[in-house]
């Protein structure tokens, strides 16, 4: 236990609800308190005239029982005026590992499409019979600003047959010394409210093989993994009309034998990976290497390089042997896509585009997807920055903010996995744009067609909303394998449109592929949409 805690002390950068009860003997913790973790959360966006779920989570009350007395909610408009108040008497004694309560806020509380602020308060009595009232959460040394939620007048923009989702989400099956997340059911509710039609739940391989009551011990019977699959299946049944793609975020080794992460989706088999779990000091060698993992996955499963170029802090590189995906690690045939959009960090996105472009110009047909890596962060995340010492607050990595839109021939798990495998998807943190190629036949993203046909045309279509602002720039990138470069063509737009549809000649008939990148802007916020390529059959 002492070694494990020492490892944890250096394991920084966790994007999750924060576990505050794990302590190292003889070292005080500024975060520890003899109460359960108590926090509220809700989606960062929702649709006008639809109810908004507000969640109350109480964790570890089996160790620190509480009595919940009353919940109070105050809603403010964009001008800071209070427009609605809700109070609910609870009088509940809570004594369980994880308690969840959902308050559905009626659409009348949000009379107009705009951004609202919400303060959620809870009055409770702790195990020392002390009566307390908290706002937002009971974490120490952390700001507790109001939640912000944008009530949109329009659904997320898309064309018929396209569906938005988040490809990298964690649930409360991810739980260890410093982090935990929300139950799958509540996570699905938040995703639906935010406008998503699907999500992939990808809990850590080193958490899914733990004993249910001890995250430092491995269960050879994998009961937690079996429970995870069963619960996800049950939630999908209850959440009729919403797809949940089950999977795991597997810790594997790159060609330098550094720990990196790979999403394996829709595979019934469990893949072990504990190299960077921090469960045993200095036992940080990868369980499987990239090629070993990919060679074992089923044909129906998807393999996605998770946040491949996000460099871990130096402490994690040293103690947990963490690294990044290297160029040679992307070459394996059974790797389906790269998760190059993970949050709003423009630098990380551009680095992802650069490595993806390099692979495309080598002739590799590989796709891109987006996901948030949300660890139960619906409206914000409260993060342990230095274990036992400090936390930080941010509004990054919120569920559904970095999205993948997939074209499905049928709305099902099979349709979803086929769409991603065939590269019929786009990524965006805002608007929607796609392209088609018309030549001897009409083909779309992930397909191949002739650029050299005399009547070959590219059809571009884009949809934005007032939430994401007008389109500003649209680019086509034509890849040339011989020259190892992309020729960039800017497509002129008239005015500041929310929608466009353009039909034009192929600019480079000898190019090997073409891909689309489009940007919109609202106030000072830029939004980016990228498509997977269409390849040229005549090169």
Short recap of the structure:
By secondary structure, this protein is mainly beta. Helices cover 14% and strands 39% of the residues.
Structural overview:
This protein has 539 residues and is mainly beta. It is 14% helix and 39% strand. The chain has eight helices and 34 strands. The protein is globular and about 80 Å long. The N terminus is likely disordered.
Tally of helical segments: 8
Roughly how many Å is the radius of gyration? 24 Å
Quote the beta fraction: 35-45%
- Please state the overall shape, judged from the principal axes of the Cα atoms: globular
Q: What are its keywords?
A:
539 residues, mainly beta, 15-stranded mixed beta sheet, 6-stranded mixed beta sheet, 8 helices, 14% helix, globular
């Amino acid at each position: 236990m002492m070694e494990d805690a020492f490892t944890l002390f250096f394991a920084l950068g966790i994007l999750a609800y924060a576990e505050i009860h794990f302590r190292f003997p003889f070292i005080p913790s500024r975060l520890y308190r003899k109460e359960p973790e108590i926090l509220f959360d809700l989606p960062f966006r929702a649709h006008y005239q639809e109810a908004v779920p507000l969640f109350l989570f109480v964790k570890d009350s089996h160790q620190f029982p509480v009595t919940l007395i009353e919940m109070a909610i105050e809603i403010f408009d964009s001008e800071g005026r209070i427009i609605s108040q809700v109070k609910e008497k609870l009088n509940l004694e809570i004594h369980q590992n994880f308690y969840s309560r959902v308050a559905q806020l009626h659409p009348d509380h949000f009379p107009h499409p705009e951004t609202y602020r919400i303060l959620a308060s809870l009055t409770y009595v702790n195990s020392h019979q002390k009566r307390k009232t908290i706002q937002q959460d009971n974490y120490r040394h952390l700001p507790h600003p109001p939640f912000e939620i944008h009530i949109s007048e329009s659904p997320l923009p898309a064309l018929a047959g396209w569906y938005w989702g988040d490809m990298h989400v964690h649930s409360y099956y991810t739980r260890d010394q410093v982090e935990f997340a929300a139950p799958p059911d509540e996570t699905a509710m938040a995703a639906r409210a935010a406008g998503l039609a699907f999500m992939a739940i990808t809990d850590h391989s080193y958490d899914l093989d733990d004993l249910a009551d001890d995250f430092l011990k491995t269960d050879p019977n994998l009961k937690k993994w079996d429970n995870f699959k069963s619960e996800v299946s049950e939630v999908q049944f209850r959440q009729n009309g919403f797809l949940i793609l089950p999977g795991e975020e597997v810790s594997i080794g790159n060609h330098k034998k550094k720990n990196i992460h790979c999403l394996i989706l829709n595979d019934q088999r469990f893949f072990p990976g504990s190299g960077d779990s921090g469960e045993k000091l200095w036992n940080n060698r990868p369980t499987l290497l990239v090629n070993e993992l990919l060679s074992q996955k089923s044909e129906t499963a998807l393999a996605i390089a998770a946040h491949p170029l996000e460099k871990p802090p130096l402490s994690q590189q040293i103690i947990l042997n963490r690294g990044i995906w290297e160029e040679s690690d992307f070459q394996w045939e059974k790797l389906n896509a790269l998760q190059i959009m993970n949050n709003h960090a423009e630098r990380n996105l551009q680095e992802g585009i650069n490595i993806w472009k390099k692979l495309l110009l080598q002739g590799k047909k590989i796709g891109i997807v987006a996901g948030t890596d949300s660890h139960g962060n619906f409206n914000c995340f409260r993060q342990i920055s230095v274990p036992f010492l400090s936390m930080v607050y941010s509004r990054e990595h919120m569920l559904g903010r970095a999205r993948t839109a997939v074209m499905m021939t049928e709305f099902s798990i099979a349709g979803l996995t086929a769409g991603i495998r065939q590269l019929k998807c786009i990524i965006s943190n805002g608007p929607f744009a796609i392209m088609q190629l018309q030549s001897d036949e009409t083909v779309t993203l992930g397909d191949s067609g002739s650029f050299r046909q005399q009547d070959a045309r590219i059809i571009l279509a884009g949809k934005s909303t007032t939430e994401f602002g007008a389109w500003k720039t649209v680019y086509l990138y034509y890849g040339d394998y011989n020259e190892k470069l992309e020729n960039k063509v800017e497509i002129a737009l008239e005015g500041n449109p929310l929608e466009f549809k353009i039909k034009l000649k192929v600019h480079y008939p000898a190019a090997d592929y073409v891909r689309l990148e489009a940007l919109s802007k609202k106030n000072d916020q830029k939004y980016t949409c990228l498509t997977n390529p269409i390849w040229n059959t005549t090169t």
